[in-house]
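Step 1: inspect the first sequence and its tokens.
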Amino acid sequence: MNQKKQLQEIRKFIYNKFYRDETGHDFYHMARVAEMARSISISENADSFICEVAGWVHDIGDHKLFNHPNKEIEKMKGFLKSIHMNNKQIAQINAAIKDISFSKGNLTPKTLEGKIVQDADRLDAIGAIGIARTFAYGGANGQLIYHPVNKEGTSIQHFYDKLLKLKDSINTSTGKKIAEKRHIILKNFLEQFFDEWIN
């Protein structure tokens, strides 16, 4: 099976896993991360195929999305084998997605491909789509938009706890340029939000 066909099969696999997600971790998030990872990999001279595949599967096994994360990772490995990806490729993909999550303690992946996928994932958390995803996640989890006294656990507080910190955690020079622009969108949004908020 050639790489184009493998990517088509991966796209179907991910669609079936995530098409009903309401938290901002839906199929289109995976598609954007895969495309961004592929794009960055070209500029950074990394393995574009590994980056794109890892972008597609990066949220498999995320504890926020699955009750049994390790089982999901094993299912993913089995699926990748079924579309004739070899053990080396599967190991590279697993290494790329292992440490990308911010919730794991802001770890830096060991491989260049992992750093690129982490960048792609974090870039999708900032900018206009990042703002939309924040409120989608908050709504799906019963969070308030904002509370001037009890700020913890609100969607607006998430900007300060995570989103505004992401620009400085980007690994690649290509990713940093994109992050600078998207960070400004976050800051402008917050300024406008508080300008409109009643006191």
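Step 2: inspect the second sequence and its tokens, then contrast the two.
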Amino acid sequence: MLWPLRQFLRLDRERQRLFLEAWWALASVRLALRFTPFKQLVEELTLHRVPVEPPALGPAALAAAGRLGWAVRAAARFTPWRSTCLVQVLAAQRMLQKRLLPGVFYIGAAPGEAAGAGKNAGLDAHAWLKCGEACITGEAAHERYTVVSTFSWL
């Protein structure tokens, strides 16, 4: 238990602050997803029926978005609940929007790969978020998913 605390204390003040903000955002989103319909959580975002690319960002904005992505991914490893890709995406989206950084998040589906499930494995779902050309959260294996919904802000 001391190892994560030591790692946290070695971070500079900005990263500590971002980590704590991300942890709180993950908690808030997880709680909101439990008690609020998804449609209501994204009602202020723009839904696109076809995949769209996020607007281009300058180097400073892209670096800021990258730091936020790091904070969300790092904090997600230390939550006592499962911080799924959707929880991470929604937490990162809120943190980015707060800083007026535009982006797009995607929800995709792919044929299921459950062990021993055969051809009737169902569907796997995944969410990922991009700012500019960078994938901020959910990058792992997102290419194998077909985009079914795209949401943007700002």
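Step 3: confirm your contrast with the notes below.
Residues 13-35 form the longest helix (23 residues). The chain has a mean pLDDT of 91.
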